[in-house]
Amino acid sequence: MKVAILSLLIFFNTFSVYEERFVDGNGVTYSLHHLHVGDYKKGYIELLGQLTECGQINFSKFCLFRYGLNPQHIVLVIENCDQGKIIATGTVLIEPKLIHSGRLVGHIEDIVTDESVRGHGFGKNIVLKLAQYAKVAGCYKVILDCKAENVPFYEKCGFTVKGSEMEIRF
Asked: Which domains are delineated in the chain?
């Protein structure tokens, strides 16, 4: 049954494919692309573990997540192609609103860069690309929540501090 459901999800997935390759000053090739199932074996879950606790995510659960994404849920990754390792990721969710004449809002989430390559611009690259997705989608703004110590990073990406973050955990 799981295989049939997974097959249907793969068949009906109309998520566009995006890839942008670039080479750094040391000749290392990188790929900025939409999350795909092959990224599971390239350390994607381990990278997310540098941000927060992920629990047990097996390949089947990962595939169900990936193929269940809709066009308003964009997950981008940067892969070090020479190592076959995912080194940065981020997500933007596009939310329709009834306020502001029914326009859209982008929510940036789950930004993380591998600790071995922080400070090299990969996180900023992801954030700016996600913000561009939100703009092209017609969002009137893009927002995110972050820890106080990350505010300077997001200010370098063009964000300004507005309000406070609140939560209820379940």
From this structure: 27-156 (3.40.630.30)
